[in-house]
Amino acid sequence: MMVQRRGRSSRLRSTVASAALVLGLAVAAHAQNPPLPPPSQAASALQQAVQQNPGLADVIRQRIAQSGLTTDQVRARLQASGYPPTLLDAYLGAQTPGQPSPVPGAQELAAIQSLGVPGVAAAGEILPVDTGLVRAVARGKSGVFGVDVFQRTTTQFLPLLAGPVPADYKLGPGDQLVLILTGDVELAYTLQVTREGFVLIPQVGQLFVSNLTLDQLRDLLYARLGRVYSGVRRSPGATTRFDISVANVRANQAYVVGEVAQPGAYQISSLGTVLTALYAAGGVTERANLRAVEVRRSGKPVATFDLYDYLLRGDTKNDVRLETGDVVFVGVHGTRAQITGAVRRPATYELKAGGSLASLIEDAGGFRPDAQLKRLSVFRLLPAAERGPGAPPRAVIDIALSPRVTQPGVTVPALGLEDGDSVVVDAVRDLGGQYYVSIVGVVNKPGVYPWREGMTLRDLVLLARGPAVGAYLKEAEIARMPDDRSQGQLATTVRVPLDSTYLFERDSLGRYVGPPGLAYPARGAPEMQLRPYDNVLILKEPDFDLQRMVAMTGEVRFPGVYSLRSKNERLAEIVDRAGGLTPQAYLDGIRFVRPVNAAGRINIDLSRALRERDSRDNVIMQPGDSVFIPEFLASVKVSGAVNSAGSVLWKRGEGLGYYVDAAGGFSYLADKGRVSVRFANGEVRTKKGGPKPGPGSEVFVPVKDTTGRTNYVALFGAIAQILASTVAIIVVVTR
Asked: What average pLDDT does range 37-42 have in this prediction?
């Protein structure tokens, strides 16, 4: 009994392991989108793997159950990933007794990934055939150029299985052909190439087709079919025509060995190439020789593929199509050198025999625009005998680069490289790491600029796009590094003369184009040499300012936006410039708003300001001030919680009560203690001050706030209900 249990347990573990293997394969193939149907040979390989693992359906059901996902959650995740929502319904819940166990396909296996079921993604390995269901490699990014190309899941280098085969494709055992005859006869045959290389055509017999191209087979068919069907002939008068094509290609078994992730034998489409085989084997290792991948056929080398030709130049002429029995061998790398710094593709590269510094830089994509292009360094390993205790293991070779004469760029010496060399290409320093000068103040483009030998103040001002409007062009200040810091000096300043030649905005005749300003010397200011880290300040012209604008609207003769003539211009002067007040102007209703420092509305007695020009009400105007003088309105508006809201004719000397009564009195919801008046000038006063509304005012009666008060009616009702329920309970208990 113990033996049987142990045997069942072992078989169960084997089934689970195999199921995890196949399950991991399928989900790893699913990247961003639902997978396309795999090739026919991949489908058959997958079907065979599933048939060998009958417990796979139970494993899928168990994984989903352990995830804790509900049926609705599973369906929602499937639909979000682009799968049919009911795809995995057969694996939700327990197996129905008497029902056959479902057989999962590639789509079902791949759909598990969208559920995020734990333990699935790490279970995948590659099947012993090229099914296209390849695991995602968990290795980090390699520093060796070309190794990572086989670790991506976006391409599998699979051959195109749809469409016609290439003209040089040679038929072989396992290929499936389709022969169609039309005309005098209408026939179609599916012909399988046998192991011996024959196809059998009804009424025609056997034809040996192995190692023939389709064109060669057509020539043969003209002769053999013509014996049976008299209408088949090459002349235009043929009454029976035929067409032969390849429906499905065979799978060749090739061997991939050497420095690959998973050496072994793989069934690869007969259209597959060296790249297909390398991908099927999981890619190459970091020890691989990418410059000479060898293809051996019948024990003899038939091709050598330099992967750099493909990766750097797109050349695939040596990516030969594989045949059954071919061996793809990847040896250990030869001479390698590393290049870092200001090149377009820094990495470790493998060098061919005689590889030079120039070829390494070319393989790395050339120099970046920020490369220094003056010198570079080659760090070379010292011979073991020269590596003393504590001494550095490398020597540095300094290489000078010379400018080209006939074209831009530099000439790189043809220095031979050795295994383990490391080349460093320096980049120019950023602005913070090199000499610079800065300019601030009244210029169009203040900032920090690179310093160069012989740079002048004029050069820097030109880089800053010239002085801005309002610049003081008699002199500028330069702050520079002090020669003596013994007393804690941080900078020394000098004033240097300027002239009008620093104004760069000029017309075609050389005349300055811009607003008028102070008179400056036409020319004659000496050129000022700048030093590293100089800071130039272009001063502002004293008392210079652009126009300050104020708005005067309402009941004036000429409303509009006015520019202040001086910093001391006052309100009454602006009213005078606006033509004075109209007869309808209501002076007490003036609304004066000042946005400066969020001052807001300001109470102004306009009558006094116009009458007494030196009074405090005749304020000095500030930029952005807005003045509105309303029309005299002989009514008072009453709104809010009154019985008849509306306007009431203004009556001199009357208080709030008069206007509330005229509006029908307070409503029952009125909050009488918070009545307010908004006067025509925007001022608001409450009832406590006893305000008397003026013309154009508004009386507002707010509604009582009942949100914080206790609803005694509801409270007493609830208490009564509780008492009634208590009495009923007592009566029942007593009975």
From this structure: 44
